[in-house]
Amino acid sequence: MSQLLSLDEASRCMKCGFCMSSCPVYNVDHIESHVARGRNVLIRWASNSSIPVDGAYGERLSYCLLCGRCEAVCPAKVPSTAINVAARTDLVNKRGLAWLQRFVYRGILKHRNLMARLLGLAALVPGVSVKDGKPLRHLADSVSIFTKGLSIPKLSRPFLSTRLPSRMTPPKGVHVRGQVAIFPGCAFEFFFADMGERMALALVEAGFEVVYPQGLTCCGLAVRSAGDLTTAQLMARHNIEILSHFDHIVTGCATCSSALKDYGRWFPDNDAWQPRASSLSAKVSDLSEFLVSEGFQPKPAEPVTITYHDPCHLKWRQAIRDEPRRLLGSIEGLKYVEMEGADECCGLGGAFGITHREASLAIQAKKMQSIRRTGAQIVVTSCPGCLIQLRDGARRHGLPIEVMHISQLIGGQREQPHRLRSAGDGGGQSPRPKSAP
Ligand code: SF4
Ligand code: SF4
Asked: Is 225 close to ligand 2, i.e. is its CB under 6 Å away?
């Protein structure tokens, strides 16, 4: 989006303040420039050169999870997240990226093979990875210095691309209904390979031949959100080349599906790539969205009480709310309880969870209170990023609850939920601290 268009769109803000009550960041820090109403004013001022486009301005832009809640309540339909990303892009074009961002986005994320090799080497270090059947332990103690205390999961061994055959077919007797390419994203490929397998199994059981396309790269959303449009377009073009000949592309990562569905808007001035990107976006589905549309019926499970956390990238960016609940509600044996504030952000927001740790932890604490009140034994979600943040929160707050990805309850059904607590790299829960910080 050009600077001019940002100004144009931001001018539609009526300053009504409706966005303030829904913004997770404003609700914990009460700073007007951290919510859509205030930020849109700053962006307009920057666009007409009334304020300098400097580091302080960039800092204001960064205090946003890009969750999209503000847009959902905005009576003027101001696209505040797109405006913010456009402003960040303008900032990067004018001032360049910080060296760390340049290194991560252009040196590592852009080169998936290099990333795989580096992570593969890291996985060989004792204690850094987890193999099938071993309980999950987080890397908090060893790498929390880099993540400001956010505990991240161990690497999967082997990675998903090595575990899955390049093609899986439905079991004998199941009518083959078509072919699906799965988009694993970085999380399923490197950290939650068990969940990637469950996703593939669910699709196979639904009657689809599942293909794991080789050579995919990161979806690019983190890079796009930071304003590095050039690198994000490179990643998108790479994925489009590989995926364009498939009829259905399914992912279990809410962040990846929101990015892939948005590719059509990543090439606004490119007549060659824009139609290809839009065509791909139209074929992308979230896992639950796809399975519900195909009438998939998960197998029964042992009795346990579950609740669900809506990832912002699913609820606010894709308007997908009912599908995961319908899938979970259809599993015989499970008792579903709705969480008050289920669609409130967990506080991760990609890099926000590390770069704005204080605000992220305050938002996380609210989420933990909501989860605790449900009395559920398992909280389910559809985004590996949320899963990391919720597990981190459960550890911090000593919550006696397990955090699972939806694929673990619907895919394969080879293990019942209670057994998943100690099995595989995707199913376990990390040790909880004795007391919350
Ligand atoms: S809800 Fe929309 S119109 Fe109202 S202040 Fe927020 S951005 Fe502006
Ligand atoms: S996108 Fe989310 S964090 Fe950003 S201003 Fe809107 S509600 Fe607040």
From this structure: no
Higher-scoring residue by pLDDT: 147, 284? 284
Q: Which atom of ligand 1 is nearest to the CA of 36?
A: 7
What pLDDT shows up at residue 57?
A: 94
Q: Which residues line ligand 1 (CB under 6 A)?
A: 13-19, 36-37, 40, 70, 74, 76, 78, 80
Phi, psi of 140 (to 5 degrees): -50, -45
Query: pTM of the entire structure?
Result: 0.87
Which pair of structure tokens corresponds to residue 364?
Answer: 């996380």
Residue nearest ligand 1's atom 2 by CA: 74
Q: Are both 113 and 138 inside the same structural domain?
A: yes
Show the domain range for 14. 3-95
Do both 344 and 419 map to the same domain? yes
